[in-house]
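Translate structure to sequence.
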């Protein structure tokens, strides 16, 4: 597993991870019922990147840019 600090170029990939999670978990009663663009908001994601608080990771064998954060 490789962790790295998110960079500004990662914004759309990170947002996509959140939106995919929302799509996958929307019918799970224990999921917090986030809404795309509301929570997490683009501003929250960008602020987390800008302040160095967001660290995505990828599995070593993964073909994607990163798998989680």
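Result:
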């Amino acid at each position: 597993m490789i962790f790295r600090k998110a960079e500004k170029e990662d914004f759309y990939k990170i947002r996509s991870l959140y939106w995919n999670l929302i799509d996958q978990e929307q019918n799970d009663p224990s999921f917090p019922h986030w809404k795309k663009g509301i929570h997490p908001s683009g501003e929250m994601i960008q602020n987390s990147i800008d302040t160095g608080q967001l660290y995505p990771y990828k599995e070593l064998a993964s073909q994607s840019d990163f798998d989680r954060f």
